[in-house]
Amino acid sequence: MMEAIRNLAQDTTSASSAKAVVDPATQKAQMRQHLVAIGANRDEEAFVSVYEYFAGRVKSFLIGKGMNEDSAEELMQEIMLIIWRRAESYDPAKAAASTWIFTIARNRHIDFIRGNKRIEVELDDEILELETTERDVQEKHVNDEQAAVRLARALDRLPQEQRQVMHLSYFRGQSHGAIAQWLDLPIGTVKSRIRLAMQAVRTQLVAEDFEH
Fold it and tell me: Domain 1-121 is in which class?
């Protein structure tokens, strides 16, 4: 499968034909359906669609994290292989396709930096819900620079202990277990603080939507 992914990477890079523009909501639904199809039926056509849509985005994400182009290309292919192998674990009720995929990319990048190949993807973490919330806000306000300001403002209003775990989990990409170890806290306390923080952030964003 890895060889097929490499070939697909070459084909995608060399392809020059323009694709029809699809609105974000439709694209989001399609990617969700494709991941389900890959997990249920090993649907290769669905995987091609997912690859064509996400491979470049994942590579750009890795480059943005400081990787050179060659290393980002190689790690991107590993990530796409993980997606193929683990698609059956994707639950569309818990997260958007983009959230699930970039959580894998984020954690695989962390493991790469740590120098090991252990894949730690906490797909049941409540942080996925926050990532989905933020992406929804960004899509809704795609040309609105205030979206990021609103999110930052909501985070700033959190109690210090909640801001701390949110920063470590969302902005630093740490797992719940790593945060618990770092702060010398029970993992249940970490999860509880993140859950409360997410509820507060969602409440603040919804309240601002109603105000405007």
Answer: mainly alpha
Q: What angle separates helix 187-211 from helix 146-156, to the nearest 10 degrees?
A: 130
Cα–Cα distances in Å, from 50 out to 5, 37, 94, 177?
12, 11, 18, 30
Full-model pTM: 0.53
Domain boundaries, the chain: 1-121, 125-212
Q: Are 129 and 172 in contact (CB under 8 A)?
A: no
Residue that has been written with the tokens 């775990």 in this structure: 165
pLDDT for 210 equals 61
Three-state secondary structure of 121-185: CCCCCCHHHHHHHHHHHHHHCCCCCHHHHHHHHHHHCCCHHHHHHHHHHHHCCCCHHHHHHHHCC
Planar angle of CA 31, 173, 74, nearest 5 degrees? 60
Does the structure show a pLDDT above 50 at 132?
A: no
Options 1.10.10.10, 3.30.300.30, 3.40.50.150, 3.40.50.300; CATH for 125-212 is 1.10.10.10
User: 50 versus 24: which is more confidently predicted?
Assistant: 50
Q: Does the pLDDT value for residue 62 go beyond 60?
A: yes
